[in-house]
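Re: Re: ligand-bound prediction request (bumping)

Still looking for help on this. To restate: I need the protein modeled with pyridoxal-5'-phosphate bound, output as structure tokens. Inputs repeated here so nobody has to scroll up.
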Amino acid sequence: MLYFNYPSNPTAATAPREFFEEIVAFARKYEILLVHDQAYAELAFDGYQPTSLLEIPGAKDIGVEFHTLSKTYNMAGWRIGFVVGNRHIIQGLRTLKTNLDYGIFAALQTAAETALNLPDVYLHEVQARYRTRRDFLIQGLAELGWNVPKPTPPCTSGFPARPELAQLTLRYPCCNKPESSLRPATPLVAGVKAMCESA
Ligand SMILES: Cc1ncc(COP(=O)(O)O)c(C=O)c1O
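Reply:
Sorry for the wait, this slipped through. Here it is.
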């Protein structure tokens, strides 16, 4: 089984449609079951639309796709999601869950039904809110001298390291700091150095 997740948390990486086509061809060739976690299906913007595994011809023969209401509908912890795709795989999951699990509290199911019936304007508002937060963060980092390209999905991690930080040899619990290898202090490097010194 191959489990994968795009847009990715925590890297913020996205995968083009060609990647999905390749992975489906690969999985069909080597008889691998595909499980795609598409938790961020709706949380994209700037014209980007995440690819669904099930858009790819032949994917349904060998794969399923999971979605969760945790992100789009801010229902994290409510344990509500769904899986679509190959019916044999879903039947296997159903058999497993029938023996291991039990249903979700009915009120939460009703809330989920309400959420799924919300008009698209709700999604647009959520996307706008995440875009605003991303822009705020990126602008703040830029003001500190860290120019980060804008990731398309909202995940806030996955930023490339600043060159200054790349010169630090990181190790647990903090960094091994050859002082001379650091460039002139910027607020960010100064912060890291302070952390190292106090560790
Ligand atoms: C990629 C991805 N999948 C799934 C989840 C969790 O979904 P759920 O709350 O339905 O377990 C997260 C939450 O962080 C996630 O980032």
